[in-house]
């Protein structure tokens, strides 16, 4: 079973993840540019994209979270001020949004998208490292191998029909046992580093600026020794 798929390394190091060039649905505006690393239940996809040019999209065909790793991407929803997204920043695009997409020079970004039959939240919602964090629940004691961490979150987008939740999250250091991951989760670290443990004893280390995807059910542990902050997308699908 796949434990985690690395989508991007901030230091430019190659990743072992396999990507295939494919569109996410028949109306995908990035159909010519998208590289998909994972597709699964719940009609979710994760991967990377390289793009230059301009696109006008009358109705965005799915929900998508974009985190820029190189260059700048300008997203302008109808009637709104343009949002310029640079490295270490991102945005969530709601399904059904009327949108203009511009990149004057090559931009690279990682993404996590999900199908959406009935849009419930249109617009463009920014993700920033200096999020408006508020305290949230922590982990149960039975899965921890050390002190209970203090966790905070800034939830910026929710679509209940697609079970799609996106925002920013941070935590004090903690160590957790290997267990089945409870959801599909995209992560882009904006601070700190994490060591993800696999059942066979292997360890995947990621740091600030790295991005990865963990499928629901993948057995994985967590160990961090400093504050970790991340942009995230979560989706829970039926077992």
Structural notes for this entry:
Strands 2, 3, 4, 5, 6, 7, 8, 9 and 10 form a 9-stranded antiparallel beta sheet that branches. Strands 1-18-15-20-13-12-11 form a 7-stranded antiparallel beta sheet, with no helix packed on it. It folds into 2 domains: 5-127, Sandwich (Jelly Rolls), CATH 2.60.120.10; 134-235, Jelly Rolls (Sandwich), CATH 2.60.120. The protein is 0% helix and 54% strand. The chain is mainly beta. Strand 6 and strand 7 (83-85) form a beta hairpin.
How many angstroms separate the termini?
A: 15 Å
CATH topology of the largest domain: Jelly Rolls
Q: What ranges have pLDDT less than 50 throughout 5 or more consecutive residues?
A: none
The CATH architecture name of the largest domain reads Sandwich
Q: Give the count of helical stretches.
A: 0
Helix amount: under 10%
From the alpha carbons, calculate the radius of gyration and give it in angstroms.
Answer: 17 Å
CATH superfamily of the largest domain: Jelly Rolls
* CATH class placement of the largest domain: Mainly Beta
Main sheet summary: 9 strands, antiparallel
Number of strands: 20
Sketch the topology as an H/E string, one letter per element. Answer: EEEEEEEEEEEEEEEEEEEE
What form results from the Cα inertia axes?
globular
Q: Compute the number of structural domains.
A: 2
Average pLDDT taken over every residue: 95
Residues in β-strands, percent = over 45%
Which structural class do you get from the secondary structure elements?
mainly beta
């Amino acid at each position: 079973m796949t434990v985690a798929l690395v989508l991007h390394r901030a230091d430019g190091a190659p990743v072992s993840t396999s990507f295939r060039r494919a569109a996410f649905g028949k109306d995908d505006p990035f159909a010519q540019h998208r590289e998909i690393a994972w597709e699964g239940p719940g009609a979710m996809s994760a991967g990377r994209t390289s793009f230059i040019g301009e696109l006008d999209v009358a109705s965005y065909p799915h929900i998508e979270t974009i985190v820029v790793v190189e260059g700048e991407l300008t997203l302008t929803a109808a009637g709104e001020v343009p949002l310029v997204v640079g490295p270490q920043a991102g945005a969530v695009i709601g399904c059904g949004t009327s949108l203009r997409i511009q990149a004057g020079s090559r931009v690279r970004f990682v993404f996590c998208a999900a199908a959406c039959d009935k849009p419930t939240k249109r617009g463009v919602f920014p993700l920033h490292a200096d999020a408006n964090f508020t305290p949230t629940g922590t982990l149960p004691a039975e899965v921890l191998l050390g002190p209970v961490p203090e966790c905070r979150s800034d939830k910026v987008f929710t679509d209940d029909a697609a079970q799609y939740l996106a925002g920013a999250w941070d935590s004090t250091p903690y160590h957790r046992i290997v267990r089945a991951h409870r959801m599909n989760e995209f992560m882009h670290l904006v601070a700190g580093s994490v060591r993800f443990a696999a059942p066979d004893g292997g360890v995947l280390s990621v740091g600030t600026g790295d991005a990865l995807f963990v499928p629901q059910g993948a057995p994985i542990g967590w160990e961090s020794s400093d504050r970790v902050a991340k942009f995230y997308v979560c989706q829970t699908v039926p077992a």
